[in-house]
Design goal:
With 209 residues, the protein is an alpha+beta fold. It contains five helices and nine strands, in the order H-H-E-E-E-E-E-H-H-H-E-E-E-E. The chain folds into two domains: 85 residues, 4'-phosphopantetheinyl transferase domain (Ribosomal Protein L22, Chain A, Alpha-Beta Complex); 103 residues, 4'-phosphopantetheinyl transferase domain (Ribosomal Protein L22, Chain A). It is 32% helix and 22% strand. The chain starts with 6 loop residues before the first helix and ends in a 16-residue tail after the last strand.
């Protein structure tokens, strides 16, 4: 994986203080390059990136002309990669942990509808419910490319509906798709694309770090 990294990626790799963190970065970045290389039919080392205002990576020209979009997220020992053609995509994964202040956090970051849904969940499920909602919202803002600067309280991801829906005045819900992914136990993950899709294809890979 290290052999595929560019000079700027090596510079970032050297800034990590802990070897384990550096190895994770090298593997996860290398996996991204290998997957993109297979989609683009080029060597992984020839994949080149540009970065948006919030450092969201995208393919540089002339690769951008292929219309391939991607996004990635990592948490703990897992990383998730998402790919789509001719549509923005966002993905998020979070490991399960306790949020004793989940209801207070919801008042700060969630829409009124999401906060109301969370308030109806039993106390023993509150942390898991909070993460389910959070991963959906994070996937949406990552698809937009604005990171957490997006107005989180101004849109609702109705993940409790079938299928999940997006309610946001500036982004018509009919043009978005929200999907709850199936990560391993003790993780929650969600994916969003900016057009309707009927299904997604998931693949699981294992790397020992």
């Amino acid at each position: 994986m290290e052999q595929t990294l560019t000079a700027d990626e090596w510079e970032r790799l050297r800034r990590f203080h802990f070897a384990r963190v550096a190895r994770r970065y090298a593997v996860r970045r290398g996996v991204l390059r290998h997957l993109l290389g297979r989609y683009l039919s080029i060597p992984p080392s020839e994949v080149s990136f540009v970065y948006g205002p919030q450092q969201k990576p995208a393919l540089a020209e002339p690769l951008a002309k292929t219309g391939l979009h991607f996004n990635l997220s990592d948490s703990g020992e897992l990383a998730v990669y998402a790919f789509a053609v001719e549509q923005a995509i966002g993905v998020d994964i979070e490991d399960h942990r306790d949020y004793p202040d989940a209801r207070q956090l919801a008042q700060r970051f969630f829409s009124p509808a999401e906060t109301a849904w969370l308030s109806q969940q039993p106390d023993e499920q509150i942390s898991l419910a909070f993460l389910r909602c959070w991963t959906c919202k994070e996937a949406v803002v990552k698809a937009l490319g604005d990171g957490l600067m997006a107005p989180l309280q101004e849109f609702t991801v109705a993940h409790w509906q079938t299928p999940p829906g997006l309610i946001w005045p500036t982004a018509p819900a009919g043009k978005w798709s929200v999907h709850l992914l199936n990560p391993p136990a003790h993780f929650s993950a969600a994916l969003t694309v900016t057009s309707p899709i009927a299904a997604i294809h998931e693949q699981h890979f294992h790397f020992r770090l």
